[in-house]
Amino acid sequence: MPSKKSIKTPKVSFREINTIALPAIVAGIAEPLISLSDIAIIGNVEENAVEALAAAGIVGSFLSAIIWILAQTKTAISAIVSQHLGSNRLHAVKTLVPQTILLNFLLSLIIYFVTAFFAELIFSAYNAEGLILDYTKSYYKIRALGFPLTLVTFAIFGVFRGLQNTLWAMKCSLVGGAVNIGLDFLLVYGIEGFIPALHLEGAAIASVIAQGVMLVMALYFFYKKTPFHLKPSLKINPNLKPLISMAANLFLRTLALNIAIYLANSYATDYGKNYIAAQSILMNIWLFFSFFIDGYANAGNAIGGKLLGAKAYTKLWNLSKDISKYAIIIALILAGSCALFYDEIGLIFNKDEQVLLLFSSVFWIVLIMQPVNAIAFMFDGIFKGLGEAKYLRNVLLVATFLGFWPTLLVLDYLGLKLYAIWIAFFVWMLIRSLALVIKFRNKYLDKT
């Protein structure tokens, strides 16, 4: 009989986790890096920099909201593909993949035409007016052309992740990010005598071109590296209904998430242009941190779904502990690095003294909440891989409408302004992390 010490605990190896997590981190931060580079470049134009920065921040938040909501099929297809991979039944989803990608494409066209037509009404709801409103409309109508490109790309990335591969998505995102930053400088500032300075509209054009490059690369990897194709079958795959149901619950979850972000930006805009400019910087840094940490959540998503398909519950439990530990370490490193360069970070994005003062007065809240964010994002990823979309939906609804919103209302009434917004976000993340940890422990600890 082997001793207890000699019995090896079933675990997913550090290498296996990081093979998925590290490329996912790079792929994940490409999108917020694009937004951050847009804001840094736009915020330093000579003419109407504060108004342009505010407009870019508002549009960036709305675009993120729409893309997050509509891209939930990416998470759903990833979960289904990973579960079928774990049970050695990939053949059962071969027709599901092209049907899901086609669904994303058609949905993106509808959303583009509806939102472009109502752009003024949408951004007026963010309390944008005057020059800021004019900038948001012109910037959005160009940026939104990338909807079909992004949503099809994201669906393909979901397939890659379900196959336990995030390297292909990383390569696409890196090239897309490099193209976007290069074109930002070229089109925003222009080249005297050759290319006119297009300012905010130049940044929008750069983003659309970068999204097109990413899609072309994603299609290349899809055809060359995966067992799937894009020829749609007239016979509906039996997994399409569960996928739509999962995506619908994640849609509602993400809608609740983006209501919180909308309320934050709406309140900040109402406080004045300096407040929304500072809020734009804070929000995009928060999103950058979120996507960075989310690389390990992607590993939890992909590996968790595969382990569930294989009924490897002990490995699943150990996976949750390991990726949470790694994510917290990364969150602490990110927060610590920003604390060291606390005042210098704001100068990257804007030189206005009032904007920088507002930014630095609140930035510390963004930093201290990062370990809590890490736990919430980790279990978000695992629960998505397990197909627990209904519970994720309920958690976000509670966190938003019983946590974030009441906190914001009370603290806004007390005149705390940007403090009210970010304390409300902290409460929001605490509720999310606690609810997910308790649920996972209750459901899976006894199965180990």
From TrEMBL:
Membrane as UniProt keyword: yes
Chain segments annotated as transmembrane: 20-43, 49-71, 101-122, 142-160, 172-191, 203-223, 243-264, 276-297, 323-342, 354-379, 391-413, 419-438
According to the UniProt entry, its GO molecular function terms are: antiporter activity; xenobiotic transmembrane transporter activity
Q: Which UniProt keywords apply?
A: Antiport, Cell membrane, Ion transport, Membrane, Transmembrane, Transmembrane helix, Transport
Q: Which GO terms describe its biological process?
A: monoatomic ion transport
> Does the keyword Methyltransferase belong to this entry?
no
Q: Please provide, in alphabetical order, the Gene Ontology terms of the cellular component aspect for this entry.
A: plasma membrane
Q: Report how it sits in the membrane.
A: Multi-pass membrane protein
Localization (cell): Cell membrane
Cited CDD domains: MATE_DinF_like
Q: Which InterPro entries match?
A: DinF-like (IPR044644), MATE_fam (IPR002528), MATE_MdtK (IPR050222), MdtK-like (IPR048279)
User: What family is reported?
Assistant: Belongs to the multi antimicrobial extrusion (MATE) (TC 2.A.66.1) family.
Q: Which PANTHER family match?
A: FMN_FAD EXPORTER YEEO-RELATED, MULTIDRUG RESISTANCE PROTEIN NORM-RELATED
Instruction: Tell me the protein's name.
Output: Multidrug-efflux transporter
Source organism per entry reads Psychroflexus gondwanensis ACAM 44
